């Protein structure tokens, strides 16, 4: 499982931030993503950077 924080901007202007979560499984062919989910915040983004 990987938790990845992000900040999203459009034309250089902040719109939101959040956390993407990827659930992975290892197969004979390599790692595969089996599920994704995300959060979206317009406030509290400084806390995500820590």
The residue-averaged pLDDT reads 91
- Indicate the radius of gyration in whole angstroms: 14 Å
Q: How many angstroms does the end-to-end distance come to?
A: 19 Å
Count of DSSP helices?
Answer: 1
Regions with little confidence, pLDDT below 50 for 5+ residues = none
Structural class per helix/strand content? mainly beta
The percent of residues in helical segments reads 10-25%
- The backbone outline, from C-alpha atoms, is elongated
> Going across the major beta sheet, what is the strand order?
1-2-3
Work out the number of β strands: 3
Beta fraction? over 45%
Along the chain, the helix and strand elements come as EEEH
Q: What's the story with the biggest beta sheet? A: 3 strands, antiparallel
Number of separate domains: 1
Can you walk through the features of this model?
The chain is mainly beta and 50 residues long. The chain has one domain (2-49). The chain contains one helix and three strands. It has one helix at residues 45-49, and strands at 2-10, 13-27, 30-38. A three-stranded antiparallel β-sheet has the order 1-2-3. Strand 1 (2-10) and strand 2 (13-27) form a beta hairpin. The longest helix is centred in the last third of the chain and has 5 residues, at 45-49. The protein is elongated. The chain starts with a strand and ends with a helix. The mean pLDDT is 91.
């Amino acid at each position: 499982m990987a938790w990845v924080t992000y900040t999203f901007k459009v034309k250089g202007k902040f719109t939101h931030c959040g956390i993407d979560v990827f659930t992975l499984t290892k197969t004979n062919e390599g790692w595969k993503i089996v599920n994704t989910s995300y959060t979206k915040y317009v406030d509290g983004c400084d806390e995500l950077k820590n």
